[in-house]
């Protein structure tokens, strides 16, 4: 059904966010007869989630996050249990979710996709854990969860540097982290297996963007499964060997790479880890339960 009402949730701190583009997008949709509201996120925790949920309650057919993957995840969380659909206009540094399905679109191309596309069910990932201070947390992931110092280099990147230097910020920080990876002991438990390993980083993927396609082949956001990747390198040389295998698109040839699929996994670590949830930092913890929520939301991904 052609959308009649849309809300754009704009994060002005997104790595490539631009208020002029937001205005162009809103005007493009209005020119096609769509009622458009533009709302801005704030520094308040959960701002994007609250704005998205309110937009759905107010009758929006489609809610459009314009920001990075953290903004997209937060908006998607606000749409769980509603009839509104998600449509992502990339406005961050990595834009991994959007790039998993389409190239960086023009305003005109994106508006046409929103108007002519059919919403499809999309999985999300539910994270339940207790922080170091004893407080319980439930959060959702749309693209990837990362655990370990190498992953912290991404989630801990400064918005200021991302705004000015883009992906170079990630390259510098990840390179520095690989020089001292600080591996921990991880135990990953599913219904039918236990994996116990010293690892530099653990990833749980819901969808595989192009830059991570070799890391987890076949992961998609509508199969009801998690792709769990363990990189067991404990020093710089081992991580270099893994990176070399990745550069040829064959990580499975490196003994420090292991992958499996499951609908739920419990992850325990020998020391506190900070969950990297779609590029945003969670709270320090030593144990998480990670569950796929099949068809949690609807998203317009193509015409």
Detailed description of the structure:
The chain is of the alpha/beta class. The protein has two domains: 5-117, Probable inorganic polyphosphate/atp-NAD kinase, domain 1 (Rossmann fold), CATH 3.40.50.10330; 124-296, Tumour Suppressor Smad4. It is built from nine helices and 17 strands. It has helices spanning 19-30, 47-57, 69-79, 96-99, 107-116, 149-155, 159-165, 168-178, 236-247, and strands at residues 5-10, 35-40, 62-67, 85-86, 89-90, 120-131, 136-141, 144-147, 184-189, 194-199, 201-205, 226-231, 257-262, 264-273, 276-277, 280-281, 285-299. The strands form two sheets. Strands 1, 2, 3, 4, 5, 6, 7, 9, 10, 14 and 17 form an eleven-stranded mixed sheet that branches. A six-stranded antiparallel sheet has the order 13-12-11-8-15-16. Strand 1 (5-10), helix 1 and strand 2 form a beta-alpha-beta unit. Helix 2 (47-57) packs across helix 3 (69-79) and helix 6 runs antiparallel to helix 8. The longest helix has 12 residues, at 19-30. The mean pLDDT is 88.
Characteristics:
17 strands, globular, single chain, Rossmann fold, 303 residues, 2 domains
- Supply the helix-strand structural class: alpha/beta
Total domain units: 2
Order of helices and strands: EHEHEHEEHHEEEHHHEEEEHEEEEE
Overall radius of gyration: 19 Å
Provide a count of the helices.
Answer: 9
Query: Which descriptor suits the 3D outline?
Result: globular
Give the C-level CATH assignment of the largest domain.
Mainly Beta
Largest sheet: 11 strands, mixed
Beta content:
25-35%
CATH architecture of the largest domain: Sandwich
Helicity range? 25-40%
Counted beta strands? 17
- Give the integer mean of the pLDDT values: 88
Q: For the terminal residues, how far apart are their CA atoms?
A: 12 Å
What are the segments in which pLDDT stays under 50 over at least 5 consecutive residues?
none
Predict the CATH topology of the largest domain. Answer: Tumour Suppressor Smad4
